[in-house]
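User: Hi! I'm working on a homework problem where we have to compare a predicted structure to a textbook description. Could you give me the structure for the chain below?
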Amino acid sequence: MTDTVNDVRDAPASSAAVTSGAAPTTGTPELTHRPGRWIDGWDPENRDQWERVGRSIAKRNLGWSIFAEFLGFVVWQLWSIVAVMLPAAGFQLETSQIFWLISIPSLVGATLRIPYSFVVAKFGGRNWTIVSAALLLIPTIAMAVCVGNPDTPFGVLLLVAALAGFGGGNFASSMSNITFFYPQREKGWALGLNAAGGNIGASVAQFAVPIVVTVGAATTMNLPWAGWIWVPLILVAMFGAFRYMDNLSNAKADLAGSAAALKEPHLWIMSLLYIGTFGSFIGFASVFPKLIADQFPEFSTFAVGGASISLAFLGALVGSLSRPYGGRLSDRFGGARITMCAFAAMALITTGVILTLPMGNFWIFLVGFLLLFATAGIGNGSTYRMVPVVFSVRGGGEASRGGDVSTQRKAAAALGLISAIGAYGGFLIPQALSLSFQGTGAYTSAFLVFIGVYVALLLLTWAVYVRGAVARAGKI
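Assistant: Happy to help. Predicted structure tokens:
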């Protein structure tokens, strides 16, 4: 039996007449609630439905989506800080092995984003959030077990680190889900908040883990707590998704739409741009603790009371907090222009890092990287904001409107696929830095390559989306 009245729990006072059974305003789709928290008739582009009940429902789903995705990023980035602490805990590891432990979660997470981008349409956003949160229990518990024994073989450590990729996959399904809840005019801010709430998990992991494993530990570290502390929060996320989130029946990214998205040249162009922005953010976030430990070991951790704190968390924090503003600036000035400015800034700042590194000043190094994280975060938001607009224009709709359902489905599929391809930057950056260090004993060669890539992506953005035919078709 279905419930054809609007959601009373989320309706504002002004919708009392509707929720009590009065006929909705003419032309407004009627929301139908079915068992399993399925909603039929969802149309965020209809302003009347959106203002009466849609906005509050969307906000509730966004809140729990952010929390679940936050934990996904926490798990995804746990090894970025734990791997650096393993030698002090008695593990005998080479530098290249530590870089593999840091980068393998990004490789697996990026790959998982491809199937994860389709599962919302198959199982429902609420249902998959429950499942994807439950999967996070596997890498957290496995980590807690294996890091407690310094005799754990490297192969086992690498396998457990790979399992952390479950957390990276969550981003694709979460973003695909939220894009269906919000109208085109508000997608930039909503997707930016959802992404930032997830991204900040990397910062929280790097801040919390050193404290938890060292507080009250005297001369040793309680590394297993790096995994155990997240288990209760994961259980809360599962319950919250079960109790408060919804499934949208019209959230469908069918295989035909996905195949059509794969044939679009713009999917691959946008993927390259996303490697440059998000790939830089997640790649640098992963290796920042390692870079500090190698270049400025005396600043790797700071003793505060009986615990240790690493300032590496500031990088991911700044990048996460700046991401929503990339979406908001894009809503106002156009995503392509903001993305182009972000690449220009990233190239200049990376050049500054290279020039100042020989000074051996940690604080200049820290400020330089925080600026790099900030511009990468803004680029994350602006690049991701471009995707639904680009596909709307390509689909024949106006850039300022939502387009038809098939265009929305195609854009949702593209969002998931682009997030997957872009996340491979989280693997490429640590590996490039590792190769540079092994070959030259320094990271300068890798940074020079990054500068060249940023300049190339800047020119690509300008040619295609600022001055190209797509830009003339609508404001990108």
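For your comparison, note the following. The longest helix spans residues 47-85. The chain has one domain: 13-473. Good luck with the assignment!
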